[in-house]
Specification:
alpha+beta; 10 strands; 502 residues; rod-shaped
């Protein structure tokens, strides 16, 4: 199964688990909120029952006080208590949520109304009629006491019912809270288990295959070119491992070929001429609207320490390589050829320019304390004009238009003396613009006044040339350099120009 499909399934499983746990948590939290609301409502109901009991008690006190003393102001608690009892009763009807409690409240209301009608009101009427002795007798022996006891009994029954419901609600709330705590604990455990499972699967699908691939690449980098890359893991990583192993095989073949070329050059002077032709290659057909040209001038002899390469990749892009070895001669020429061939192989294999330089540095290994090189590597998309490049301590290449210049400066150190590591930069070549790469032997040429030719003069030449035929541009630049320095070049000089027609 493809790695992306495995990761998608893992993601779907995680999302489904999160949604399921979230749904359960939502239900339990809603139950907790409902239980809390009911527990608060019943607590308020208990307080209202107590207020109702107080209201009826005040009515009893006021009524009996008036019946026995005849003092009118003592009836105020009786009247106020009736009003308060009615208000509290209405509040209780809204807060009691069971039929049983509503029934008990109705019985309290009926008992209260019966007491007022058959007990309290007759006693008050007797007292107001001036029958104080009879009123006292009725208070002591009349039906009011019995009706009042029944009212107290109904109130006690209501209070007990509310208390029972409140206790049950509190117990239910505690139970829901316990379940919520257990749920949160279960979520934490599942999260840990899910994270562990995801880590194990990712390690099995990604980390282990990449580690094995890295180990194989390190073996190859260490010189074990005969050690094949182990192909493991999901299809994508297995395909990557196969590509790396294929590149290893090609590098090995190119390295063997370069070694044979070096031995042949050392054995025969005639081969040196062939080496020079390899350092200055022929350019094959390229896309319409583009022209390329380059030339190399050796400072002495026939073999330079510079080299360049221009070719078309499998994707139809133009690849450009310029290498400058410290020094010049046959030994430097051989090293330049090796470097060019390794870079060419890496670019043909699809490597980015920065990665191609990394591979080259690994293949060349330790070149000694006094041997180093600079390089400029670029791949140009002939359709969009996109330039991907890497610069290993080389003089900056130029993207030149009639009114602007863009420098493609170093993206990493020179090769041989410092730790490797090159990034890939990006630029673009628009219609009517050209890309020029060169070695320092061109711009550091001096005249009789000991002045450098310099990059500014080179840019002026490029901006003053029509960008339709690269060979003419290259010829004009070389001619101007030779006129500027009549005594000839002191270092190998290379220039490569790529023009995009308007």
């Amino acid at each position: 199964m493809l790695l992306r499909r495995r990761l998608l399934l893992l993601f779907v499983a995680i999302v489904a688990g999160v949604l399921a746990v979230g749904a359960v948590a939502t239900i339990v939290i809603r139950q907790r909120d409902d239980a809390q609301a009911r527990e608060r409502k019943l607590s308020v109901a208990m307080e209202r029952v107590a207020r109702l009991q107080t209201a009826y008690s005040d009515q009893e006190t006021g009524e009996r006080g008036y019946a026995l003393s005849g003092v009118e102001r003592l009836l105020e608690p009786y009247s106020d208590g009736g009003v308060r009892a009615g208000a509290v009763t209405r509040e209780l009807r809204a807060s009691l949520d069971t039929a049983d409690l509503q029934g008990r409240l109705r019985r309290v209301v009926r008992a209260g109304a019966t007491w007022r009608r058959d007990g309290a009101e007759p006693e008050i009427a007797l007292r107001r009629g001036g029958n104080a002795a009879q009123a006292a007798t009725v208070v002591a022996t009349g039906p009011g006491s019995r009706l009042l006891d029944r009212l107290r009994s109904r109130l006690a029954t209501l209070a007990a019912g509310v208390q029972t419901e409140a206790t049950a609600a509190a117990s239910h709330l505690d139970s829901v809270r316990a379940r919520l705590t257990e749920l949160f604990f279960a979520i934490a455990v599942l999260a840990v288990l899910g994270a562990v499972a995801a880590a194990v699967l990712i390690r099995r699908w990604v980390t282990v295959p990449i580690d094995e691939l890295s180990a194989g690449v390190r073996r190859v980098r260490g010189g074990a070119l005969d050690s094949s890359i182990r192909i493991t893991g999901p299809p994508e990583l297995a395909a990557l491992a196969r590509d790396v192993d294929s590149m290893r095989g090609r590098i090995r073949g190119q390295l063997l070929e370069s070694e044979r070329s070096r031995q042949a050059v050392e054995q025969s002077a005639a081969v040196v001429l062939t080496l020079r032709s390899q350092l200055e290659p022929e350019v094959g057909p390229i896309a319409d609207g583009w022209t390329v040209a380059g030339t190399l001038r050796a400072a002495e002899g026939v073999v330079a320490g510079d080299c360049y390469d221009l070719f078309v990749t499998r994707q139809g892009d133009i690849a450009l390589i310029v290498v400058d070895i410290a020094g010049h001669g046959a030994t430097e020429g051989i090293l330049a050829l090796r470097c060019k061939e390794v870079l060419r192989t890496a670019l043909i294999s699809g490597a980015e320019p920065g990665d191609a330089l990394d591979t080259t540095a690994e293949m060349l290994g330790d070149m000694g304390t006094e041997v180093f090189l600079t390089a400029f590597v670029a791949v140009i998309d002939t359709t969009a004009g996109r330039v991907r490049y890497a610069n290993a301590g080389h003089p900056p290449a130029f993207v030149v238009s009639s009114d602007d210049v863009v420098e493609l400066g170093p993206t990493g150190p020179l090769v041989g003396l410092l730790a490797p590591g090159w990034s890939t930069g990006e630029a673009s070549i628009g219609p009517g613009e050209n890309l020029c790469a060169y070695t320092d032997g061109l711009t550091e040429t001096r005249n009789d006044d000991n002045e450098f030719f310099g990059p500014d003069r080179l840019v002026e030449l490029l901006q003053g040339s029509r960008c339709d035929q690269a060979p003419a541009v290259v010829k004009r630049c070389i001619d101007e350099v030779e006129v500027f320095s009549p005594d000839g070049l002191r270092d190998d000089a290379t220039i490569v120009v790529l023009c995009r027609a308007e």
